[in-house]
């Protein structure tokens, strides 16, 4: 009897903390309005407000913080298909850039607690501090199926109750990622030197550099820090330059090679960068990743096109056509290159096995190579790390033949 009275008192005290008209749990307070007219209700976390962007889905099972800080997601809402997110909190050591550039994060379940020996704060606290909107209790499976069927959709995410669904729908119809220069807002503003290599505790290829050193210029179109670390681990001394850095200034630096980084958006929207790449090709060895791959291909005369829903995730199978090996790769892009548009002499070296799209090229006559995925993959598969070695071998061969 005494235990029952004590239990009733606990219940009364708990109920007394909830005001009339309130609920002891969070209710839906955010809307996602898609350009096809769909309206999804969800619960918000992180920042509040109204934001427009392109909705894409990512199939990675780990690495949500690396995804959040990948500049290639600028202008996009990232829908994570893995259902439970936030379990390990956030660690400052896992960031891929200086800030979060994506439009927002969409997940199924938000972990109510975070536990990790390197964790410093919760995912919600992190998004608040970075001013990034997030929603949870979203039927991510249904939304992913919609995106697969219809393709990537423009959406508007809002916690503002004063805005009508019709107003948000109109916002979605007035915005596009196609033909927009997304690189300018993510690139660095002035050159700097990068010296950090992959930490020894995370080093996964002890056969990296052979003692040779190479001075390279890395164009920042939204570069990920682990790409820079892998290049240093293979013996590169790096000067990172902005996307607007003139080719003439690069060539004055007399580099052993030039690296063109990953980045967001449409390669056809940055013709000024394409012209820069044209001026560099044939002068020094050039290596590109993702956006860098698209820019090299475009500079060679290739044509890009918008994919239906793109490739986003750490489990994309790629076939290396040179040795017939299959690599599991990390990818993040919504545009691709039509291989039929590439000129004679350009070799397609890799293809995506899911849809047959071009995943890598080489042009030996101009000492150029590129891939449409992330060989540094942090976190993710390391099957493709060898391409950094191929870049250094290309630079070494060029130096010896000079």
Automatic annotation (TrEMBL):
Stored PROSITE patterns: GATASE_TYPE_1
The record's family statement is: Belongs to the CarA family.
Role:
Small subunit of the arginine-specific carbamoyl phosphate synthase (CPSase). CPSase catalyzes the formation of carbamoyl phosphate from the ammonia moiety of glutamine, carbonate, and phosphate donated by ATP, the first step of the arginine biosynthetic pathway. The small subunit (glutamine amidotransferase) binds and cleaves glutamine to supply the large subunit with the substrate ammonia.
Q: Which domain of life, per UniProt?
A: Eukaryota
Extract the GO molecular function terms from the UniProt entry. Answer: ATP binding; carbamoyl-phosphate synthase (glutamine-hydrolyzing) activity
HAMAP family to which the protein is assigned, alphabetical: CPSase_S_chain
Species per Swiss-Prot/TrEMBL record = Aquilegia coerulea (Rocky mountain columbine)
Q: What is this protein called?
A: Carbamoyl phosphate synthase small chain, chloroplastic
Q: Which GO terms describe its biological process?
A: 'de novo' pyrimidine nucleobase biosynthetic process; glutamine metabolic process; L-arginine biosynthetic process; pyrimidine nucleotide biosynthetic process
Q: Pfam families, per this entry? A: CPSase_sm_chain (PF00988), GATase (PF00117)
Ligase: present as a keyword of the record? yes
Q: Which EC main class describes this enzyme?
A: ligase
Biological or metabolic pathway of the protein: Pyrimidine metabolism; UMP biosynthesis via de novo pathway; (S)-dihydroorotate from bicarbonate: step 1/3; Amino-acid biosynthesis; L-arginine biosynthesis; carbamoyl phosphate from bicarbonate: step 1/1
């Amino acid at each position: 009897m005494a235990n029952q009275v004590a239990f009733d008192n606990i219940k009364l005290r708990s109920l007394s903390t909830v005001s009339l008209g309130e609920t002891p749990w969070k209710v839906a307070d955010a809307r996602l309005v898609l350009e096809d007219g769909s309206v999804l209700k969800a619960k918000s976390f992180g920042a509040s407000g109204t934001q427009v962007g392109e909705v894409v889905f990512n199939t990675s099972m780990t690495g949500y913080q690396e995804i959040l800080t990948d500049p290639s997601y600028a202008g996009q809402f990232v829908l994570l298909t893995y259902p439970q997110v936030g379990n390990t909190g956030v660690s400052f050591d896992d960031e891929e850039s200086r800030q979060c550039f994506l439009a927002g994060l969409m997940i199924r379940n938000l972990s109510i607690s975070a536990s990790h020996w390197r964790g410093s704060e919760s995912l919600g606290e992190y998004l608040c501090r970075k001013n990034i909107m997030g929603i949870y209790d979203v039927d991510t499976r249904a939304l992913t199926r919609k995106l697969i069927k219809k393709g990537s959709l423009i959406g508007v995410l809002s916690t503002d109750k004063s805005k009508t669904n019709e107003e948000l729908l109109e916002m979605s119809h007035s915005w596009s990622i196609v033909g927009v220069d997304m690189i300018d807002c993510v690139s660095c503003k002035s050159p700097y030197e990068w010296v950090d290599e992959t930490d020894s505790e995370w080093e996964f290829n002890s056969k990296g550099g052979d003692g040779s050193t190479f001075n390279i210029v890395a164009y920042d179109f939204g570069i990920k820090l682990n790409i820079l670390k892998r290049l240093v681990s293979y013996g590169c001394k790096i000067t990172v330059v902005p996307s607007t850095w003139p080719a003439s200034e690069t060539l004055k630096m007399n580099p052993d090679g030039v690296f063109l980084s990953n980045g967001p958006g449409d390669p056809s929207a940055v013709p000024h960068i394409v012209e820069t790449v044209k001026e560099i090709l044939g002068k020094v060895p050039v290596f590109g990743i993702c956006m860098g791959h698209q820019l090299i291909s475009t500079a060679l005369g290739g044509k890009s096109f918008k994919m239906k829903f793109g490739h986003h995730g750490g489990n994309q199978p790629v076939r290396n056509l040179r040795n017939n090996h299959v690599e599991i790769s990390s990818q993040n892009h919504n545009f691709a290159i039509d291989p039929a548009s590439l000129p004679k002499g350009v070799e397609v070296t890799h293809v995506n096995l899911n849809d047959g799209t071009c995943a890598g090229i080489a042009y030996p006559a101009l000492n150029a190579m590129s891939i449409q995925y992330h060989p540094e993959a942090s976190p993710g598969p390391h099957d493709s790390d060898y391409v950094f070695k191929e870049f250094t071998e290309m630079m070494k061969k060029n130096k010896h033949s000079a």
